[in-house]
């Protein structure tokens, strides 16, 4: 699979994403600072995406024509169909009240069969179509250690392993 993960501050928009020779996406900001637009430069189709605050985080699976996009301080993850430029699904994620603890990461296991979303309050395992395969609540002090042996490893303190979440069998 051809997977691309990245981030860009909203203040640095417009931002162009190349998905190959024939497909380029443009991320644009609007007057309202929590709304962005995703525009397909080959078809000029456009999509409005809300709840984007400060930094955009995205994960693109070019083979599946799917994009996951969220923001470090927002409460939503959008699953987008890049072929049709439409929203497939919106997943609401719990966030800590104190923004200082907010985080959002997209992680891909070595076999690339799913995507892992790690926020300050939750860990989600998603299919490439946005189906929630597994969901776990986290504490803000839980730390991501690694994806090791097809499992996500989290710790509460450096000495205390919380759990390993297997990423097989989905």
Name its key features.
mainly beta, five-stranded antiparallel sheet, four-stranded antiparallel sheet, 0% helix
Can you characterise this structure?
It is a single chain. The protein is an all-beta fold and 170 residues long. The chain has one domain (3-166). The chain has no helices and 16 strands. The chain has strands at 3-9, 15-18, 24-29, 36-40, 46-49, 55-61, 66-71, 76-81, 86-92, 104-107, 115-119, 122-126, 132-137, 143-148, 151-157, 160-166. The radius of gyration is 16 Å and the shape is globular.
What's the gist of this structure?
With 170 residues, the chain is an all-beta fold.
How do the SSEs run, as a string of H and E?
A: EEEEEEEEEEEEEEEE
Point out poorly predicted stretches: none
Task: Give the termini distance in whole angstroms.
Answer: 17 Å
Radius of gyration over C-alpha positions, nearest whole angstrom: 16 Å
Mean pLDDT equals 84
Q: Main β-sheet: number of strands, strand sense, barrel status? A: 5 strands, antiparallel
List the helices and strands and how they pair.
Blueprint (H helix, E strand, L loop, with lengths): L2 E7 L5 E4 L5 E6 L6 E5 L5 E4 L5 E7 L4 E6 L4 E6 L4 E7 L11 E4 L7 E5 L2 E5 L5 E6 L5 E6 L2 E7 L2 E7 L4
Antiparallel strand pairs: 1-6, 2-3, 3-4, 4-5, 6-7, 7-8, 8-9, 10-11, 11-12, 12-13, 14-15, 15-16
